[in-house]
Write a structure and sequence with these properties.
Blueprint lengths: L15 E7 L2 E7 L5 H12 L6 E5 L4 E2 L15 E7 L28
Parallel strand pairs: 1-5
Antiparallel strand pairs: 1-2, 3-4, 3-5
Protein name: Ubiquitin-like domain-containing protein
InterPro entries: Ubiquitin-like_dom (IPR000626), Ubiquitin-like_domsf (IPR029071)
Pfam families: ubiquitin
């Protein structure tokens, strides 16, 4: 039996994507489960022109900060996962997670504001 005709195993690297969100922007990043968080940050660096050391990725909704040296699979990041991107500020601290949801701006049923 040849290698190419064997059935797919769970170890096969199936392409997936994650949604990386920051403010009102969502980046759809194509990846495989064995990629490390550092590799994802390198892809983001090309998109947002921010060094990998100034990026922090946080798995939502539990707000778990993802470890650069671990793979997506190691940290249970699944296909279509939502990951928040925060950037390092001038004071060397990371900004707070700021993800805008479409419902944040929906008018109230009576046509007035949400206030």
């Amino acid at each position: 039996m040849s290698q190419s005709s064997r059935p797919n195993s769970p170890d096969d690297q199936t392409a997936m994507y994650i949604r990386v969100k920051r403010n009102k922007i969502t980046y759809f990043v194509t990846c495989v489960p064995s990629e490390t968080i550092l590799q994802i940050k390198e892809k983001l660096q090309e998109l947002i022109d921010q060094p990998v050391n100034d990026q922090r990725l946080i798995l939502m909704p539990n707000r778990e900060v993802l470890d650069d040296s671990k793979s997506l699979a190691d940290q249970k990041v699944e296909n279509d996962a939502v990951v928040a991107l925060t950037l390092r500020k001038d004071d060397n601290e990371f900004e707070d997670v700021n993800i805008t949801r479409p419902t944040d701006y929906s008018p109230s049923p009576d046509g007035g504001s949400n206030w």
